[in-house]
Amino acid sequence: MSREGLTVSTTTTYLQVRRTARVVLLGEAGQGVSRMWICCHGYSQLAPEFAREVAALAAPGRLVVVPEALNRYYKDDHGGVHGPDHPVGATWMTREERLREIDDYCAYLDSVHDHFSNQLPDLAGVTALGFSQGSQTVARWAARTSRRIDHVILWGGGLPQEIQPGPGMFGGARVTLVAGERDRFAAGAVDRLAQSLEAADVACKVEYFGGGHRLDDETLRRIAASA
Q: CATH top-level class for 21-74+88-225?
């Protein structure tokens, strides 16, 4: 690296550091809870906001876990002072150091799974739902993890390019693809992904609802009833 006529030698190193994560729950962990849902938000959302969007999942015997991505930033940032009302969003990753970011959030989601599943002695099923950017987050995690996941739901998003469809791609978990009929990001892509999965002998279910790039209460309840 050169600056003002000086040549400076630099070395990059990496450290694992302790982070505090925000996780919002719908329901309480403990005996009698047989179903756990881990729901990953989309780009620029926060966990409390996304918890409201999945509130239709709240039900006796079900714990809904909404972890927040560890990278926060000021939204619509045009410089200047950030006041108390300036909106904040979170993202699971960017292109910068993307592979390390993926490693980190997969380890984070493993920790989330461990923390809450260990409090559920009657656990009989785990669902991982990802919305928008969160769908690729969930797909990467489900493809890597050794933790129990029985059902993977990719909502308003799809598979990362590096994941090739194939039997056992999510450890044998059931796969459901969901999109709004007017979702300009995912509607057509869902059908193409379903065809790719079926061609690779991966059974999947496709759900559409009358809406855009968002969640839908009725569809959430219907899927949850069969989970």
A: alpha beta
